[in-house]
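Troubleshooting log. The previous run stalled partway through. Resubmitting the same four chains, unchanged.
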Amino acid sequence: MANDTKRRLMDAAEVLFAEHGLRNTSVRMIVSAIGANVASIRFHFGSLEELKKAVLMRRFEPLVARRLASLEEARGATPRPVPVRRLLEIWFAPMLEMAASLDPGERALPRILARLQADPAPEYELLLQQELAPHVEAFLDELARALPHLDRSEIAHRFDFVIGAFGHALRRVDDPRVRSSRRRRELVRRLTAELMEFAVAGLEAPAARDPDAAPGGPVVQSTA
Amino acid sequence: MANDTKRRLMDAAEVLFAEHGLRNTSVRMIVSAIGANVASIRFHFGSLEELKKAVLMRRFEPLVARRLASLEEARGATPRPVPVRRLLEIWFAPMLEMAASLDPGERALPRILARLQADPAPEYELLLQQELAPHVEAFLDELARALPHLDRSEIAHRFDFVIGAFGHALRRVDDPRVRSSRRRRELVRRLTAELMEFAVAGLEAPAARDPDAAPGGPVVQSTA
DNA sequence: CTCGGAGTCAAACACATGTTTGATTCCTGC
DNA sequence: GCAGGAATCAAACATGTGTTTGACTCCGAG
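Second attempt completed without errors. Output:
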């Protein structure tokens, strides 16, 4: 019974975070979800902020570990560069499995991260960047091998585009109009297939012309 | 002097909305920014919610109008489908000009919308969907002519990917580490050129295989 | 000059937030 | 069985929120 309340707090909190966002979830929403006392969060975590970080880390660390392990394995299989499509599969797979899960707790992290993408809260931003930066670098390194026609900075930007598209797609899956888990899983699979085609083509596209050096005028011209 | 305070409230509010998000901007933050009284918002707008909607609409209506006019013009110029690249230019241009503007007020709307993308607030979601839906449909119609190898639903999803990537890129431009407006404008131009290449290739990619019918196994396979 | 509405103001409202307190219950180790 | 820490509890705290009130100033029309 010792850490039971502690675990139940985290479980209840993470689905509330997914539903309402980290910012808009109050102590009282969490404790009342499991019939606990308002002081329980302070007792078990010290503060609400600490609980938020604990919830994020519990799901986040295994996710990063899985990605890195898969990347390592794919890289070790052959001396040739890992194909872009395979790299994207490795990147997306863990998150997609969570997003399609039947367990609301499993499903929470992708939703939380997708929200965090656009609602920058300096504290988590920093926390996640520290946790993310290393394995993002590893993927960018491997992408650079697979896309020798692009310089590193353009690769980083394009990977950012992919992450933005992915997050946006995940938010769509959150649409409350998609109720049944059967339909949700189907939608996730569908979007996954379409996103994969889109992202591979986008990443492999020819390098952008330097807008300064381009003789053909600005890439985005006035619509006059 | 009549509507002076009213206008100043909207001006101050929109940059605060861009900075802190619609949700996290309080009445007192707004009024203290221009030295007005807390009751002034109630007097001029009825409520804080009404002020938010007024701020959104003031910038939003001209944006939609510009896009539709440019689309109409491009479509009238030739009986052939408008190229994908041109459609994206028309879509991005107004927002990009705002994002690169020197006026913080001009710059606010893209930031607000980019935040709103991931922080769904039912009230504005509805408001914006009503305002957006018609001209999104018009763009999808034209995209369908330019991309005859894709069915309508896949086009809609891909356009969503583009919007997600665009929003994410705009959020990057918001990075407080990018201080000088000179550097910001440069970054916007750079990202624009790269995003254009990425998005055109992504939209024009071959249709995704139906994950059910695909004999080659799941598109995203387990990373075991 | 005066009346009256437009606009502003300080102060308080009712409510929600995270945190804190001190007492009380619970259960394990002795 | 009992001592003592772990865990829970109701209640209050201080602060922030949007809103409301009623008096106040201002200024143009009659």
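Takeaways: Residues 48-77 of chain A form the longest helix (30 residues). Residues 1, 26-28, 38-39, 41-42, 47-48 of chain A lie near DNA strand C (CB under 10 Å from a C1').
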